[in-house]
Amino acid sequence: MKLKACIKSIGAYLPKNIVYNQDFETFLDTSDEWITRRTGIKQRFKADKDEQTSDLAYKAALVAIKRAKINIDDIDMIIVATLSPDYFAMPSTATLVAHKLGLKVSAFDISAACSGFIYMLELAKSLVESASKKNVLIIGAEKISSVLDYNDRSTCVLFGDGAAACVISAGYENEILDVQTATDGEYAKLLFTNRPKYSKDCTPISLKMQGNDVFKVAVNTLANEVKHILSKNNLSKDDITHFIPHQANLRIINYVKEKLELKDEQCCVCVDKYGNTSAASIPIAINELYESKKLKKGDLMLFDAFGGGFTWGSALAYFDGE
Ligand code: ACO
């Protein structure tokens, strides 16, 4: 029987501080009304000063490993997707997470912005199916507050910190059915992190986005993307138990949901609670379903994501956790 890669578990960690929309009204020309109407976001979590992306990732990893009912040293690879690593360039956040877990296994980061979770799924699927690895720990983790300009109302209100992890292991049923990923670097300048090239001091990196232009490309790309992965796998919208989109903006989620004619109960929405947590957003949403006991073993999940690059992707996977 052919070896299959399965999502064995999900676990998340959110920092304790909550920032409400009203908190921005005290120092920015913005309002709870604008943020809610244009994005659907009501609050987001924010890490402490001394709490780094690897700390969030480590805590999410512990939950996922426990729920997978394996030992920490059964993990033979760690991948972290992040745009807000502890260190830029090196060492990777995955290396730091491996160390916190007491492991010396292969560990590396990938850079695919908000699509990072889909990219990790694709990698883990092929490594597990080829029997190169047995248990791959994939973690979407962001301390995105560390790359935000809190004077820029068009970006800082949108994002939140958090981490979520999955253990991907070999099995024979409830597999990750299919993953599609793509990029278009023509749009690099619409969404990027900026550090002036010639600055002598260590000018903080900050995220820049032309939100409205990103929005237009995102809605059309995602609608086509999800239709394609369903038809490629001979599935219809009714086969999907949970549509779990990247949580960037409620209006983007609703656009794709309407294009696919999905029912409300099929669609996972938690952008109101977490904001856009970039690479962590899809696994945090999976965890939300899991902890509210709506996600059951054998449920078919459809994921879609879109982010800086541009990068985007979609995936179909059965849940194989208990
Ligand atoms: N409060 C009040 N007004 C605001 C705020 C704010 N926080 N932010 C912007 N505005 C103003 C603008 O200045 C503009 O004012 P003007 O008309 O006087 O110039 C007006 O609101 C409209 O601005 P738009 O940018 O056109 O607003 P839009 O409706 O497009 O909403 C948003 C902006 C929420 C960013 C939306 O475009 C969006 O969600 N884009 C996609 C984001 C996304 O999916 N990114 C990809 C993933 S992120 C990643 O990869 C890291």
TrEMBL record:
Annotated Pfam families: ACP_syn_III, ACP_syn_III_C
Keywords: Acyltransferase, Cytoplasm, Fatty acid biosynthesis, Fatty acid metabolism, Lipid biosynthesis, Lipid metabolism, Multifunctional enzyme, Transferase
InterPro entries, per database record: ACP_syn_III_C, ACP_syn_III_N, FabH, Thiolase-like
E.C. number(s) listed in UniProt: 2.3.1.180
Domain named Beta-ketoacyl-[acyl-carrier-protein] synthase III N-terminal: residues: 108-185
Function: Catalyzes the condensation reaction of fatty acid synthesis by the addition to an acyl acceptor of two carbons from malonyl-ACP. Catalyzes the first condensation reaction which initiates fatty acid synthesis and may therefore play a role in governing the total rate of fatty acid production. Possesses both acetoacetyl-ACP synthase and acetyl transacylase activities. Its substrate specificity determines the biosynthesis of branched-chain and/or straight-chain of fatty acids.
Protein name according to UniProt: Beta-ketoacyl-[acyl-carrier-protein] synthase III
Species in which this protein is naturally found: Campylobacter canadensis
Chain's gene name: fabH
